[in-house]
Amino acid sequence: QVHLVESGGGLVRAGGSLRLSCAASGIIASIITMDWYRQAPGKQRELVARITDDSTVNYADPVKGRFTISRDSAKNTVYLHMNSLNPEDTAVYYCHTKPWSLDYWGQGTQVTVSS
What we know:
The chain is an all-beta fold. The protein is 0% helix and 51% strand. It is built from no helices and eleven strands. It has strands at 3-7, 10-13, 18-25, 34-39, 46-51, 57-59, 67-72, 77-82, 91-97, 104-105, 109-114. Strands 2, 4, 5, 6, 9, 10 and 11 form a seven-stranded mixed sheet that branches. Strand 9 and strand 10 (104-105) form a beta hairpin. It is globular and about 40 Å long.
């Protein structure tokens, strides 16, 4: 059974940094595509960053140059390094994967950026 557990969210001032973690079990996170999504209040969930099975990375335009997705094979964990945060980054951040055409989501971690 696949489980994704996010951590690392919190309250940070504008311009600050956070690192989110997604610990995976039931899958090998280093060989499949893993995503970070976010959902702000009143808005649809949106894709923020993706790392594919061949380690290609993609980012949504609003976070390019500020966020970095990476993974640690030994820890079976995917990270989202977030720099230069601004209030528009405030959202619940979710880890996601879709092996075998089935969607798996973590419980989410809240990121709040104050101005």
